Every structure is written in C-alpha cells, then in structure tokens.
From TrEMBL:
NCBIfam families named in the record: MAB_1171c_fam
Annotated source species: Streptomyces mobaraensis
Record-annotated membrane-spanning stretches: 111-132, 152-172, 184-213, 233-251
Keyword entries, A-Z: Membrane, Transmembrane, Transmembrane helix
Pfam families in the cross-refs: DUF6545
Protein name according to UniProt: DUF6545 domain-containing protein
Amino acid sequence: MSDVISYVIAGMLLLQAAWRAPAAMRGRARERSLWGTLTAMSLAWLMRTDFGKWLVDHVGVFDLATLLKHLLTVAALGLLFRYVTAIDAAEVRTGSVASRRIRITAAAHRYATIVGGAVSIAMTVVFLFWLHRTKVPTDPQFLERHAGEPAVALYMGLLYAFSGTVIGLCAYQWGSKANAARGAALRAGLWLMTTGMIIGVLYAAIRIIYSVLAGVHPVSSAHAAVQECVTDILLYGCFFLWGIGVVVPATQAARNRYEVLVKTVKLQPLWRDLAVANLDLVAVPPSRLLPGSRLAAPVNTARDVLCGGMSPAFRLGRYITEIQDAILELRRRAPEGLYTRALQMAERDGGDPEAQEARAQALWIRAALAAADRPAGQPVAFPSGRGESLAAEGAWLLSVAAAYTEVTPYAVVALLAEEGQPA
C-alpha cells in the first residue's frame, strides 16, 4: 500500500512537472524553480518505492536509494523556497517593500542554496564514513537499521532540521499571502499549501525527536511501527494538500485561458472576412489551407486561433484591434446611409434594442464587404466603439459576431438594393 501511495504522489508531481516544463523553459527563475521542485520531489518519492530501490541497488552501494531520496528532498525544498520568495526578494532589491516578513524571507531566499548545499555535503559525509552500512538489511526501514548509532541522529537531524525550517518558512509565506490573494482559486490554493506545510513541520519535528531517541538507544519494534505509521500519514497528508494547492490556482488560469480561446473562436469568422478584405491591416493573414474542401473551415479556424506562437489573450486583443481597424477602412468604401438602412431592417425583425443594434452592425459589415470594390471616399456614418476598454469592446464585438453568422446573402442583397447598389 505504501508503494501505491508513493507512485500516486510521484505521478502527480511528474504530471505537474511535465505540464509546467514549457513555462520553465521560456520563463524566469521562479518558473524554473517550481519545475525543479516538482521534478526533484517526484524522483525522491520514486526512491521510496521497491522499484526505485531496485534501480539504484544495481550500483552496489547499499542504502544509496535512501541517500538519493534525502538529497533530492533537500534540493527540492531549497528550490521550493526560492520559488516562494522570488517575488518578495525582487521587491526588496528594488527597495519598494520594507516589511520585516519580506526582509527575513528575502535573506533566507539568498542563502537557501548555500545552506542546502552544505546540508547535502554534511549528510553525504555522515552517510559514507560514519554510518555502519551492511550488505544484508536487517530491517526494512533506514532509521531502524541504524538504531543505536549516534551518527544516524546527526544524519536525520540535518535532514529534518533543514526540511522543517524551509517548510515552516513556506507556510509562513503562503499563510501571510492567503487572505490578501486575489480570486477564490488562488486563496484556496494558498490555504491548502499552508495547511500541508504545517503538517510537514509537525512531521519533521516528530522525525527529529524519534531520530535522536533511535540514535541513542534501539527503539522497540512496536514503537517503531507506530512512529512509522503516524509519520507516513502526516507525510502523505502534507504532499497531497500541497500538490492539490499547487494545482488549484492553475485550474483557474486554465479556465481563463479556455474562456479566452472560446471568445477567439467566436470572433474568428468576423475577423477572417474583414482580414481577407484588408490584408494590409492584419499582422498575420488568415489561414487558407485546403481550398474547396469540407475540412477547410475547421482546419483554417484551428490554425488561426491556435498557431502563431502567441498567447490566447494576445491573439484575442489582436483580433479586436484588427476588426476595429478593418471597419474603419470599410467606412471609406461603404455606401452613404447604409447603417441607417441596416438599422431599419434590423428593427423590423424585432428584439431588444441591443440585439437590434448588433444585428444592424452585422448587416452593415456584410453589405460593406460586398460593396468594398467602390472607390474610397470620406468615412460614412457608423457607431463608434461600445466600450472604453478592450474587454468591453470585445464583449460587444462578440454580439456582433454572433449576429454576423446569421446574416443571409438575401438580406445583404435586399439592403444594398434599397439604395440601388449592385450586390
């Protein structure tokens, strides 16, 4: 059962590491630190399993899997703390924040790598030269195998003193930021991680006390079994809460990204038609793969909204801006009075005023595109933007885009015919 839980936690951490790998490759030290934490922690949990031990045992150094597990833990915690304090450390360097909490954590951020390296070297020295390691294990647990050896108290004390300190500082950081966090998902994630770290501190404290006792005198099998059961439960709880807490804010980001992508897909037909008619106004021309094929529309839509090496939010903003620019250019070629007639036609169809206006603008765009071969002149009348921000303008254009897809060729012909213009 212990192996199963270890595999689950290792898998959960590896999945997150794989998910965050692209951000780590193109991101800052903060993103790379989190990716390193997840990767090192997943490998440390793998070293707890029979499979991980079997892999390392082939080297021929008994208990090497345990040493690697502990060294990976130290490295992971050091990287985690650098991730946690990266923002505050940057603020201290710029002199913009002077709170005692941030000064303390920024100093710890500065020396975490040095202290972690020193702890790792000291543990390795104790492991290689002071612990009485044998080729035949007498107990399945590392601590019980070395019970009665003072060196094991030093070895485990170094590990858990460093771990407990870093975990406690992380809990302090996350707990301090939780109430002020923006968004329910981020706040919930911070509290989950804080709770997990508090459990981790309790785990480290129990392990330090037990390590000292075991190093002084062998502990009975009953007491060892109880200690192992309690600390394993605490360790599993710590990692599950922390792992879930790391994911929760990311789910909100994924949801936001999905919503932006949906808006971009809805705007794409309107943007595409306007872009084709005004190619000199768009940064990236619309995709034109598979002309004449049934797959052309979905393939080109997917290529337009997914490719190009830009974020969904940036692409959505570009679509909105380019639609506005293209409409401005269409105003120079559209027939005079076209919008008044489009609004009258929309009003005849009924509906609330906003729906009528969105339908009228969609009709005007369709008809203006059909008459776009006219000579350019002075801009004709057309409503200006609906919002003071890009988000407000985007929300309105989504209504226009929805109405745009429902405009029929007959409506365009009828609208242009009212002024005697050829369709």
